[in-house]
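so my prof wants the structure for this chain in the tokens format not the other one, which i didnt know existed until like an hour ago. anyway here's the sequence
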Amino acid sequence: MPVDALDVIPLAVLDPALGRTGAHNRGFAEMMAARASGPLCFWCSTDISDAYRQALAVRGVNAVPVFNLDFYRLVHEPGGIAEHWDWIYRLALDYQGALRQVVERWPGQPVRVLHHTLSWEHASALSIAIQLLGDAGTQLDHLALLMYSPGVTADGRLLDSSRRLNFRLAFSALARMPNVSLYAACSEYAAAYARLLDKAEPLQVHPCFLGDWRQRPARAERSTGLVLAYVGEIKQEKGFIDLPERLAAMLRDSECRDQRFVVQVTEARTPTAREILGKLHAVAVVDPRIDLHDGYWRDEQLHEWLSMASALCLDYDARAYSHKTSGLLWLAAWHGLPVRVPAGSWLDREARRLGTPRIPSDRPPLPRFARRDKGAVTPGYFETIFAPFDEWVRARPLAVPTLRPASQLGVVEAGGQVEADIREARGQAARRMARPLMENEGGIDVVLFWKQNDSTLYGRRSDMVARYLASRRDVRRVMVVDAPISEARLAELASGDSIDQQRWIYERTLEKLRGSYDIDGVMHRVLVYPSVLFAPDSHEWATPDFVEAYAEFLANEFELEGIDPGRSVFWIYPRDYSMPALLQRFAPAYTVVDVVDDHRTWPGVSVADKQRLGDNYRDLLAGADLALANCEAVRSSMKQFHEDIQLVPNGCDEARPPSHGVEAHEGLAEIEAHVGKVIGFVGNLEAKIDIGLLESVARRFPEHLLVLVGSTHANPRVRTLLRHPNVRLPGVVPYDQLGAWLSRFDVGLIPHLDMELTRHMNPLKAHVYLSWGVPVVSTAVANVDADGELVRMAVSHGAFLHQVETTLAAPPPNPGRFRDHVAANGWRARLEHHVDMLGFDQVR
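here's what i got, hopefully its the right format
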């Protein structure tokens, strides 16, 4: 395309926060509207007011309301894509709708699509949306601007492992798309994202988009002594809570007696913010040196005040802004305005790179205290940051001509080794032959549908049930079917690390595709469905097309293994929204529904999702030949759907699997060599874990190791416990390797909070500990029973610490007591009567 045609290429700006919040979103829109040199349209929040849409329209810019969510809702929330999947996918659908409208608005021609202010959750949603749009979006050239710290420094030092993982997963997906270009907000981020994404060179830096940089502003006389004491949104990390005290100190300071202090704020959203704003109003009434502006400043107003000021106070929290950018710093640099910034922060370093005069945070905000660090100035950096943004956008080379249709991308978002791994595993699955029959070849087949993708990994109830069923003489084999998973989601899991479960699930899923876990009469299967055909969460919605594909997959597996569904048992763990339709399709001889969780009690479940879950429980339990529940609370909640639901608590593993491969884990040798006691925990470190209690345990027993074995993916805050020198977080240890760890534990902990979730669960870890001869100390939560010296209960933190101390000091319980407990509470004892009553012999 000729260069002189670039100006006529349309520019679509997707800004989901425009109209919902002010700040830089509104300033950016006004700047772009003022400088539009070609077709321009914004896709924005549905909260945008009619008045503001009209104001943009007067400038020739159309704003189309599409986005329904609070774009910044997850910025400070813990967790990753799994924990916030519903929100991310809803945002992805909004993105998809906006992109489809972009294509429809400018059909048959290339379009630049600009995305600014992307954090990991936004990037995740955007990559899903581009994927969902498919071939229809091949004309779109995406420019993604990165203005959040990705959890690593410019030299690759780790700042936050959870943040790093989230950003790596999200932006790796975008970086692999041939029509997406990534640009960083500053030189630090350019290097940090390169480290994050394994790029040899830093990303390009995009200009600051908060102003028109064509002409340097004329400075007003600084003798006015006007200090901008606070500008922008009310935020704690920007020092707003302490602002009255700082203002009072400056008003008392004799150095500042001739100063005038301007405070401009927007949106006091909390009671604390309103209280502090009230104090500022009260002070401004009695002291004429304070000029308080309670409301939004247009872009022109902000630049006018910056041009008049003699100093700008950015008294932000140094830790919060250690690697966080600020648009006000760039605006001050453009105006040559001295800034008071905390030492060691990004604000300080960026001011040095730009040659901006800095005032120490302990000095009055007066120009005479300002200093430039000429030796730290980066040549050419000022010109890069302050290049005219609209010209920079229009001059970007188009990536659109090099696009490949999404249907040619193979495993969408996978790429490289991940794509090769999936193809190799599928190739082995295609060549897989039927397994030889067991001795009891006349037995019935059981197809066990697990509700997650972690079978074989943790030794869950489903794993124990499958092993028990395979041991029966009237069962030929058990086929365990994990929940379906998309190629795109599987590719995301490949980037996980050992401390979380993602990489483990990725590896185990491939091994199940290969048939590597078909052992002792138990087979493992999983549908990995193509992302070019289905949305990443299609299994959650069970559309007719998806159910048909799922049924076809099962039919092929049944044919290969010689399984006749009509002469088989379907053993189901809700929640699988496809299952009611699959039961109608295959009509098994028996249906068993084993309910281990009431998902309606989980945190963050919407009213609509609770209704869907309830409907699914009703559909599955209504036709069950046998209904089981793992605890009384779950049984009670499900009785409305199946009156005769049976209570079958979790049990002990009578035949502990042999440990293998444990020598590969670098943390085990330290545990085995430790001369003191080992206080242990096994299980996912989820939101139900009492982190405060574990803090107390670490402090109370500094001479002993506190070893927390499990994934932190659902509760990254657990990692803060590593500040204690006696805490170890080895990450996930597979169940078949767990024995070496448990055999070193002197006490096993169940540090659960008392919450609705824990009242509707039956902790399997108590039985895991007891199976390995480890005494237990538990908080007083439901469905854990005290048993003298084997299981001690505690109703408070103090009592819990006392029970741990008592257990550590006492001689180990007699091994015979553990053997007796396992024999009385094993899986055979739990299940045999109920399975016998079904009468498998009749089907045989």
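also thought this was worth mentioning. The first strand starts at residue 11 and ends at 14.
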